[in-house]
Amino acid sequence: MKKFAVSVMALAAMALLAVPSSAMAAPTKFNVDGGHSSVFFKVKHFGVGHFFGRFNKMKGQVHWGKNKKAVSIKVAAASIDTNNARRDKHLRSPDFFNAKRFRFISFKGNQVKKLGAGKFAVTGNLRLNGVTKKRTINFMVTGLKKDPYGNLRMGAVATFKVKRSNFGMTYGLKNKAIGNIVTITVSIEAVKAK
Predict the structure, then answer these.
(1) What is the DSSP code (8-state) at residue 175?
(2) What CA–CA distance (Å, rounded) separates 80 from 91?
(3) How far is C-alpha 53 from the chain's CA centre?
(4) Labelling 84: which of 74, 112, 151, 192 has CA 20 to 30 A away?
(5) pLDDT tens, 43-53?
(6) What is the chain's mean pLDDT, rounded?
(7) Which residues are CB-neighbours of 146 under 8 A, at least 6 positions away?
(8) Could you say which of 2.40.40.20, 3.40.50.720, 2.40.128.110, 3.40.50.300 is the CATH number of the domain covering 4-192?
(9) Under 8 Å CB-to-CB from 80, ≥6 apart: which residues?
């Protein structure tokens, strides 16, 4: 699978690009709000229908300023949730995410490029199932403003594809039970640290 990413998740960093540089001359830290961020995936089953799942636990930070731009996101592999306990247990096994050995799916990026109005790309390392690959993920900033409690929040969303065999996940490929291409959607909300 791919969990990608979150992914993927350099999204939080990207959102910061929408903030005027003068407002963040010094590095500013944002913490990912795991309770309001989501990672979903979609994969083909027996070449017939699409199957969906999600990961329930995510954390991370974004540092943004004139001289420092970086994002670090971690998704707990064991938090996979497909609404079926038996299947979730299998997905946590060495056949897929090997969650006991590789506890987190992570993304670390420090190269961000503006693509257009509200659109950006972040390049970094995606680590999944013990394998690290360099990836560039496009995302869109969905908001940047203070909440009713005075906290500055940012939002961003991205959808990208991962070939799971590139990360050592080959179970179900030979009999085509599970597709090789996994589509991941990551929606992140992050809060400026106090």
Answers:
(1) T
(2) 8
(3) 14
(4) 74
(5) 999 999 999 99
(6) 85
(7) 152, 153
(8) 2.40.128.110
(9) 1, 3, 53, 54, 55, 56, 88, 91, 92, 97, 99
